[in-house]
Design goal:
Number of strands: 7
Radius of gyration: 23 Å
Number of domains: 2
Number of helices: 9
Strand order of the largest sheet: 3-4-5-6-7
Oligomer: single chain
């Protein structure tokens, strides 16, 4: 593989547009992967993802030798500038396609297009070309920073320990990391009486991080979780998490815990 070949590969994916100046050639990366990794579930790390060639090459090589390698690729959201002659084409592509003008957005778009191409060219292949995107951030839990002068303010703030602006998905991701759960496992969501419940890794973890759990919803919510858990045959080690301040009152929280415990879901926690 050589640079011109890599440029042509990018143009083919991006409808003739050259959105990356010096991408790495797929053929070279595929050869490196083939020589260095020959087991399913091997994890390949690229800390300077750039155009995303490494992950694209893994898609292609997994298809070629029927191995399920995984990858972690890291790319800073470097801003593309219209005034920069070398970045002008990349910037224009992002604007035309409603993407933030950053390198990382182009990386994600390349992987979406590469995965689609591999699927279309190999309809019988059942391998995985999906990916999840995570951004580094502070904890979702409000830090305790009280001094003698600010103790009263901190106590008031801790009525809700979750930082404002954090989503249910943010909370679930942090919880998975803290519990040592692989971020690539299957996550399914369902709605029970308007409340979103997430089921992680076939029932090992259930979460409901909605901001309000009315007492009137407890019966439907618990029935939904119980029936779902039974259908998965997940066993007794399942863990359930809720937001402590989401419950309308202590009665709602007590009833929810009692119903779940009666049906074998005894590992209950709140944030």
């Amino acid at each position: 593989g050589h640079t011109q070949q890599a440029t042509n590969e990018i143009k083919e994916l991006f409808s003739g547009e050259q959105v990356f100046d010096t991408p790495k050639p797929l053929k070279l990366l595929r050869r490196i992967i083939q020589l260095s990794s020959n087991k399913s579930d091997d994890i390949i790390l690229d800390f300077f993802a750039g155009s995303g060639t490494t992950a694209h090459a893994i898609f292609e090589q997994n298809k070629e030798d029927s191995i399920s390698r995984k990858s972690i690729i890291v790319q800073l959201p470097e801003v593309l500038l219209e005034s920069n002659r070398e970045q002008k084409a990349s910037y224009s592509f992002c604007i035309k396609n409603n993407l933030k003008p950053t390198i990382s957005e182009l990386t994600k778009e390349r992987l979406r297009r590469a995965g689609k191409k591999v699927r279309e060219e190999n309809p019988e292949w059942k391998g995985d070309v999906g990916f999840r995107v995570f951004k580094l951030d502070t904890s979702n839990i409000r830090p305790w920073e009280a001094s003698a002068e600010t103790l009263s303010e901190q106590i008031d703030a801790y009525v809700s320990p979750i930082l404002e602006g954090r989503s249910e998905e943010d909370l679930l991701t942090e919880l998975m990391l803290k519990r040592g759960i692989d971020l690539s496992v299957n996550i399914e969501t369902r709605q029970f009486d308007g409340l979103t419940v997430s089921c992680v890794d076939g029932g090992k973890l259930f979460t409901c991080f909605t901001s309000q759990i009315p007492a009137s919803c407890v019966e439907v919510l618990t029935k939904g979780i119980i029936d779902w858990h039974k259908s998965l045959k997940a066993g007794k080690d399942t863990v359930c998490y809720f937001l402590d301040d989401a419950f309308e009152n202590n009665v709602a929280k007590t009833n929810l815990c009692a119903i779940l415990e009666q049906h074998g879901l005894t590992n209950l926690h709140s944030l």
